[in-house]
Amino acid sequence: MSIDEILKSGSDKMEKCLSQLKKDLATVRTGRANPMILDKVLVDYYGAPTPLRQLSQVTVQDGTTLVITPFDKTIIKEIEKALIKAELGINPNSDGMVIRLKFPPLTEERRKALTKDVKSMGETSKVAIRNIRRDMTDDLKKAEKQENLPEDSVKDGQDKIQKTTDKYIKMIDDTVSEKEKEVMTV
After folding, report:
1. Strand ranges for the chain from DSSP E
2. Is pLDDT of 186 > 70?
3. 6: burial class by Cβ within 10 Å (0-12, 13-18, 19+)?
4. Global pTM?
5. Minimal CB count within 10 Å: which of 51, 60, 73, 111?
């Protein structure tokens, strides 16, 4: 495996890690209604756990209310059960045709707790990035032994691996910082 292949493979893995962090952060509740908070909600649809967003249309009515319109009206009760089970901190309100989720403003205490969760997600992602860096370094050492790479090439490869790692760590920090601001904004 060449140095360029090692860097490309590692960068792809780091990009996936960053992408997953962004998906996870999108499900963190803020004071505004965000349909992505429902991405992890699974509804028991005729015995099969099915993502809510596949069974309904989700729209933002105003800045603080999500409206869930099921394609099949007979599963409204199942959707309500799934929303309660998901522990979103919001009680579903159904009129038999649609379900409304009214997002109350977050308390200062809840905002701080969510900020801690966001930081924790960021730290977990940084650990994953560092593990990828370690794997890349190991691959580089193997390539050095197998292909008798010159010392300068190995040193250059290690520098590139570190620069790539630093770049993704900074991107994670920026993403986490942005989400923290969003959570703390009233």
Report:
1. 42-45, 48-51, 56-62, 65-70, 93-94, 99-102
2. no
3. buried
4. 0.75
5. 73
